[in-house]
Amino acid sequence: MIALAADVGGGHISCAIVEERSIVASQSFPADKAAGLRPLLPTVSNVFHRIADESGIALSDCAGLALSFCGLVNPLTGRILSTNAKYDDGPSIDLPAWCRESLGLELRIENDARMALLGEWYAGAGRGFNDLVMITLGTGIGGAAMIEGRLLRGKHFQAGCLGGHLTASYLGRTCTCGAIGCVEAEASEWALREICAALPDIGRSSLAREPRITFEGLFRHAAAGDELALRIRERCLTVWAAGAVSLIHAYDPEMVLFGGGVMQSAEVILPFMQSYMDRHAWTPWGRVKARTAHLGNEAALLGAIPLLSQEGA
Amino acid sequence: MIALAADVGGGHISCAIVEERSIVASQSFPADKAAGLRPLLPTVSNVFHRIADESGIALSDCAGLALSFCGLVNPLTGRILSTNAKYDDGPSIDLPAWCRESLGLELRIENDARMALLGEWYAGAGRGFNDLVMITLGTGIGGAAMIEGRLLRGKHFQAGCLGGHLTASYLGRTCTCGAIGCVEAEASEWALREICAALPDIGRSSLAREPRITFEGLFRHAAAGDELALRIRERCLTVWAAGAVSLIHAYDPEMVLFGGGVMQSAEVILPFMQSYMDRHAWTPWGRVKARTAHLGNEAALLGAIPLLSQEGA
Question: Which of B238, B243, B226 has its CA nearest to residue B179?
Fold first, then answer.
């Protein structure tokens, strides 16, 4: 099976032709989420026509276009539901009609965190397991859940993808989502910046020399022995692990997948997660595995085949 | 449709004949969870034979026995999986065989929190809604979730029923479940006793005159203006509400049902929950309703018909 896959992220759009578990051809281009999605659609269809031509693939041989979007979507209607300041014109666009007209293909759409989990299940770290939770650690904290081989969606298509917004500290910081002390508000990259800025002793840390505080910088300075970086890293790890236990208790998975750029420090993060989960998750049946997601930015694209064949989706 | 229903709780067993949304006849008797379930089974079958006789109902006209159990069960095999110090002989008993032999009926078994939700969905506060979360506030904190008209169970039959064990405070108290700072460890009745016992100023509160601290006592002393009781009540309400927001973010329901004896103070609890959920749950589609469960101890029994007809279950 061959299909088109598009991943519409906050800062870029990736277009790919996928065949089963491989990416045959792909091209990414920067995208201005503030300027909206509609002006970008001609570029998306041009890119697909070009990479198909170059690969000697007829679009009519593709099973459809699987579109991964960085917001809430309705997979039944193919419409974007809610955008949170990314491509705010999304809900007004009839994407299935655009896809039929410009590519001659059926469209299926899904939230990007769910697509990444679907890709990892089909072609990555989750292969062979049907009960999975994924946590993506980044600017925000994303999530998705699969139960008994089906993506969890829920009535309003929110279930699973708010895994970063479960409570970590009920007297904690206020999140952009409205919740108090959710995992994202306590230990995402955007929260990290605010937390560091508010620390009275930040000036004594080597972290203060960073032009912009990131997880990468935090883990680098912690590895170099900076005391404050070590303290904040421990705090982040503990919040993420407590979040993982909440997700285990909520969804009863066999495995928790951790994704995001910070997993370049998997040698620190994964043993912490596994040990915490072993000690604090209540799973009389056995032990939930902590694993690193494998596919990085390709995960959402590789969810295309199962999404279109409605396998697991 | 007529069926038998049994609710095996920590301190009693209730046996009932149910017809659709009504209890036709019922009898409860005290049960010693420490002495095991096997010695109680002859009493259970005797009670069913007797109340059927007295009601003029032939057991052979019943669709089966729906058994609600206070622990983890496997509804596919009809076996008890895990008991947490209640009827520890449970996993060794072939309950379907016992039911066929002593009552001539098929057995279906389910966790008691899921049965209570199923009852509320079928005959109580959840009627007309297919996406529900239930939180039962008591000695422990129970939970269950229904998504798109089906009880959520998960791979190891744990999903949904550990809703009381989602994190509320990642640096909080250790729970009997192993988690740190979960809702039950922070604001269940057993935790309340430990929290009060550790307070240095408990002696100045009228609460200290209670022989045993309960939610009922806490709400009574708070209503009478006791400052410490007011402070601890506020803390419990906030933890419960933060837990409700976690469950909303996890399961995407239309409604959260609150059950348990403490809901006799619904006039305090429900407005607090609704207001907190309105302010802190991220639900761009609309507003999740906070409601009191209606059916009390009858909820699990009234789940019998949908469980046996596999409607919603």
Answer: B243
Instruction: Tell me the pTM.
Output: 0.96
Closest Cα in chain B, distance from residue A16 (Å): 31
- Looking at the domain assignment, is residue A26 inside a domain? yes
* Pair B138, B110 in one domain: no
A216 and A269, same domain (yes or no): yes
The answer to whether the CB atoms of B281 and A179 lie below 8 A apart is: yes
Residue B255: its chain A contacts at CB < 8 A? none
In-domain check, residue A87: yes
Residue B110: Cβ within 10 Å count: 27
- pLDDT of the residue at B310: 87
Angle of helix A266-280 relative to helix A215-223, nearest 10 degrees, comes to 90
Residue B85 is predicted with a pLDDT of 78
Closest Cβ–Cβ partner in B160, B239, B282 for A162: B282
| Per-residue confidence band for A237, with pLDDT thresholds at 50, 70 and 90 | very high
Assess whether A190 and A216 both reside in one domain. Answer: yes
Predicted interface score ipTM higher than 0.90: yes
Size of interface A-B (CB pairs under 8 A): 153
How many domains does one find in chain A? 2
**Cβ burial, residue A58 (10 Å; 0-12/13-18/19+):** exposed
B122 within a domain of the structure (yes/no): no
Tokens representing A1 are: 């099976």
Phi, psi of A82, rounded to the nearest 5 degrees: -155, 140
> Do B228 and B145 share a structural domain?
yes
Together in a domain, A219 and A108? no
